[in-house]
Amino acid sequence: MYAGALLFIWAAVLSHSSLWTVVVAVVVTTIVAIRIDIEERVLRERYIEYDTYAQTTKAIVPYLV
To answer: What's this model's pTM, rounded to 2 decimal places?
Structure first.
């Protein structure tokens, strides 16, 4: 879900380059990064086995990031 949103936002920057689109993309990317960090912390606190799962699964794009 996050990867799709980020792909959409950055594709908009590439297709409609302007200061406005870059600012929006940077803000959205920052918010997504903060949200991922918060969600990871909550999952680690709530589910003890999540650490093991997270070591073998990528957070944003499977097999890459």
So the answer is: 0.79
- From the list 27, 31, 28, 54, the residue with the least C-alpha distance to 42 is 54
Which parts of 1-65 fold into alpha helices (H)?
A: 2-15, 19-46, 50-56
Give the model confidence (pLDDT) of 9-18 as tens digits: 999 999 999 9
For the chain, domain boundaries: 2-56
Q: Computed from CA positions of residues 33, 37, 38, 39, in that sequence, does the dihedral angle turn out positive or negative?
A: positive
**61 CB-near residues (< 8 Å, 6+ apart):** 3
Please give the Cα distance from 63 to 49 (Å, whole number): 20
